[in-house]
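Self-study notes.
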Amino acid sequence: MSTQIKLSELSNRKPRKISLGENEVCVVRIEDDVYAVADTCSHSDASLSEGDVSDFKIECWLHGAEFDLRTGEVVTPPATQPLKKYEVLRDGDTITIMEPGR
């Protein structure tokens, strides 16, 4: 399963929530690179697409947990579990987001 969006539709360092089947995915453009992780914080039921991005980290607006957008790993507590990371393919202005291992 995959979904496509245009790179030109993504603002730099502004998270955007998209649907991939039944999953909500947080997509972030940092310059010309795009990252995609699960949209729900692993610590609480909060949408990460409402959080702030700094460097390669996204911060959950609810309790301040931070995650590395490149890996999904936890950077700052209170979260302890990593986020699911999605594969991102770029072809010109077209970005394809898909389940890992597809």
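Second protein, same conventions, sequence then structure:
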Amino acid sequence: MADWDIEIDCEGLLCPLPVLRARKRLLALAHGTVVCVRATDAMALVDLPHFCGQAGHDYLGAKEDGSVTRHLIRRGADRK
């Protein structure tokens, strides 16, 4: 069983597109939902954790799977 609820395929996309796609999907999800962003751009290792810190989501880490890196993000609570 996967460690995430939803997967977003961002393979072949350069940043900031993985961040923008993750942001769009996360906005529509419930608090606590875990998303896996599959990215090949090395800058995603910098941009996705930074985005999570700014947006109030939890960056759970990354794992390399060949040329793809899987980034796990837990949807944070809505900010007031």
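Instructor comment on the second fold: The mean pLDDT is 95.
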